Amino acid sequence: MTQEFLDALSGSVTLLTPVRGRGGNVEDYRIDAASPEAVDIAGRTGKELVGLRVLEAYPTVLGTELWDGYRSALETGTVWTGAPFEYEEIVAGIPRLSRFQIRAAPSGGRLVVSWERLDAGEREQHRNTVMQRLSNLGWADWDLLTDTITWSEQVYTIFGRHPDEGPMTLEELPRHLPAEDLPALGANVQRLLGDGQPIDHAFRILTPAGVRHLRIVAEAERDAEGNTVEVHGFFQDTTATRNIEHELLERQLADTAQRSQLNAERDLAARLRHALLPLPQQSLHVADVHIDVVYQPAHQGLNVGGDWYSAIELPDGSLFVVVGDVAGHGMDSVGTMAQLRFTAKGMAVTGTPLTGILGRLNLLLLHSGDSLTATATVIMARYQPDTRTLTWARAGHLPPLLVRDGRACYLDPPDGVLLGATHDARYTEATLALGDSDELFLYTDGLIEKPGEDLGASLSRLVAAVTATPASHRDLGDLVTALGVPGEPRDDVCVLRITASRSSEQL
Q: From its phi and psi, is residue 87 left (phi > 0), alpha (psi between -120 and 50) or beta?
């Protein structure tokens, strides 16, 4: 047997010539010819194997069943077929184990050996099995001529069917479907079998584990006369994907509904706030003083804050001015702001002292009936034009800033905790004689607050910003802008500047 003969063979075939010692015993085998498709564990193919000795190339073969099989074939003259044979070799320092089915046929004192490698096919089959399991996908074949159905292992898992029951026929399949899914699947199967058209259809089945969503992708093979003789297809369980899609849709709908509700709440709160508060920036004269006002609501998401102010001339000719800040955002804050604003104005008109007003506002928040008690800070003042005296009180609010003769300082605050904090709240008053050139600033914390900054530093920034320009050129809107942090959203801002004047108008 020559190399030319093996060149015409497919598969892995080698021609081995025994190498005998002095006693005639076989000591090794020499590869004298090899088919083009012959390959060993090291990747040597075809003619690269010719001339190699078996024990030189594969030393661990000695003493194995394979070695004994070669000897048996030579001695008996019969073909030897071995059980699957495992061989390990070190390649590039890495152990590699392969499995082969080996057949040795004696021919003229030599051996024709064929090697069928099993591990590659087994690995491929294992990969396919893993891929089917991970994707929950299985294949199915229908031979309509022999009425033979073949399912892969994963299809049984998909249908919740034990392999002992065998595959399900196309006629049996509709019995496992909800009634509403039958017409569409029936039409697709009819198109597949009758017209030979491929199908890709989603449907549901009823299994012991519950309803499952499946997808079938199938195509038909037809004979020369156009009759469908075979069907090949895949089933995929898409239940998990459908559940995720359904959950995402529910979350999207819930999110949309929540956003719609929040938008409606924001719009309503904004309308209510605009109805309660005057224009965002203006100047007015009340009780012989001039008041400049800047009010900027927050523009952060769906939040609507509760900053507020009021300035009115009282029946005795005095001025009542108040600035407040309700904790939180949204409709609750706006509603609380409205209660405080109208209650404070009403009590001031009846002549109630400032401390009495704050005490009543505190009780109002403590007994509002809400599950979560609201809190607020307030600063209020009454100015008497005849004595030019300003009496003021506060409830947890930031102190007023007085600018006199070009110098700015904060007034020493009287006692007063924030509204809604405690039943034992105590409030006191302080007085200030307001001169012609004095400027008094009342404001909410949104004017000066900066993320991560200490309150003392924030108050110092306000002093620096106010004194940076002369009073004659000091614009309240520019002051608000200068104190803002670029790129950072800010809370509601409310600022009032009070100076001496001679006119009468009310807000």
A: beta
Q: What's the first-to-final CA gap in the chain, in angstroms?
A: 117
CB 323 within 8 Å of CB 496: yes
Tell me: pLDDT of 350 over 90: yes
Chain position carrying tokens 């006693």: 23
- Both structure tokens of 69: 């099989």
Ranked by mean pLDDT, the top range of 37-46, 74-83, 494-503 is 74-83
Residue 4 sits at φ, ψ, to 5 deg, of -60, -35
pLDDT in tens, 378-426: 999 999 999 999 999 999 999 999 999 889 999 999 999 999 989 999 9
Are 394 and 371 spatial neighbours (Cβ–Cβ below 8 Å)?
no
- Report the pLDDT value the prediction gives residue 41, as an integer from 0 to 100: 62
**Which distant-in-sequence residues (6+ apart) come within 8 Å of 320 by Cβ?**
310, 311, 312, 313, 314, 345, 348, 349, 380, 381, 382
d(C-alpha 43, C-alpha 306), whole Å = 80
Strands 439-443, 493-500: pairing kind? antiparallel
Residue 379, both tokens: 């600063």
Phi, psi of 375 (to 5 degrees): -130, 160
